[in-house]
Amino acid sequence: MKILTHVNMAPIESSEVLMRGLQDKQTSMWAFVSIEERIPIEHPLRRIKKLADQQLVKLSGVFNQMYSQVGRPSIAPERVLKSLLLMALYSVRSERQLCEQLGYNLLFRWFLDMELEEESFDATVFSKNRERLLEHEVGRLFFEAVVKQAREANLISDDHFSVDGTLIEAWASLKSFRPKGEDRSRDKDPEDPGNRWVDFHGEKRGNDTHESKSDPESLLARKGAGKEAKLCYGAHALMENRNGLLVDLKVTQATGTAERDAAEEMIKRQRQKGVKVKSLGADKNYDTRGFVDFLRGRKIAPHVAANTKRKGGSAIDGRTTRHESYSISQRIRKKIEEIFGWMKTVGGFRKTRYRGTPRTQLAAWWVGAAYNLVRMAKLAV
User: Fold this and answer.
1) Does residue 109 form part of some domain?
2) Among 105, 108, 190, 314, which is least packed, fewest CB within 10 Å?
């Protein structure tokens, strides 16, 4: 047998191309494909899946209360929550894109325990089921279950913690930041219907006089002097210092005192759970007399970076800075910035996909849980 490789080339013997392999377009009528065998044994997602499944089993009772006993079967809540984890782990930009990838991504199907012949989720149905998780605070329950799992594995310190905050851009543009109580009947110029006619140049705008019409809970904020102002939320994290795991997260409006208010609330929650909290590391934004007194009043060492430029001077003195533990806390607390970096770059939390504090808080829970699962998998729980 001879094979013609090109019209202008001489035929070659088939024995000469056996090593090359030939394309066969004929498909098999029957085939058995195991998704489990397609996933490498050493794939990092295997350990994450095991850790997540262990906690989802414990939430089965909560899931049973979320659904009616009659009607058509819905998407399993375990799959919805694990889908949200996938979005954080693989930087999937939207729920619609996730549903599209489930049509051809074997790794995603394996993680969700889906068979090959199963249809992918409808994006609209998926979004409605995600809203059900919000109503029943499943995101918070799952995050707390993961933290408890880490604590039982002795990965979490009950003594030394760090706190910090960051800005999360809201799902709203500056064009939506309009005067409060404004009549919107003239939003569009009849001569230019494709664009808003509002011109903000020279107009002084602030949170006291303006609000976003797209997301009223978002506030205008900037990271520092000279930085661009954007509509944002504040995200606040409490990290334990042993292995750099998150133990609490809180989303607030981006106000001037939000960081310290959120830190106090998270500390109170830890104390209610029986956690000792002997020291707290923080940056200069937390160096206020009120916050330092709050910590000392609860016998928590205020390992806060001294802000000597603050009017009235720093609230941190030699009683704190003379101890070696203060320097250690200041060095370790910087790890929390790495967590925020992961949540924003990998987890897609630089800008929230949702509007309103409750939905943004839900996103923070599952992105934070995803980070903890990745960290715990590396620590070989």
Assistant:
1) yes
2) 190
**Rounded CA gap, 108 and 104, in Å?**
9
Domain shared by 168 and 122, yes or no: no
Based on the fold, state whether residues 161 and 288 are members of the same structural domain: yes
51 CA to centre of own chain: 18
Look up the pTM and report it: 0.85
> From CA 195, how far away is CA 51, in angstroms rounded?
49
Assess contact for 359 and 134: CB atoms under 8 A.
yes
Tokens read off for 293 = 């007194």
How is residue 21 written in tokens? 């392999």
Q: Give the domain range for residue 236.
A: 156-172+230-354
Domain match, 240 and 309 both: yes
User: What angle do helix axes 357-378 and 138-152 make, rounded to 10 degrees?
Assistant: 20
- pLDDT tens digit sequence for 217-270: 999 988 877 788 889 999 999 999 999 999 999 999 999 889 999 999 999 999
Report the C-alpha dihedral over residues 36, 39, 42, 48, rounded to 10 degrees: -80
| 60 shares its domain with 168 | no
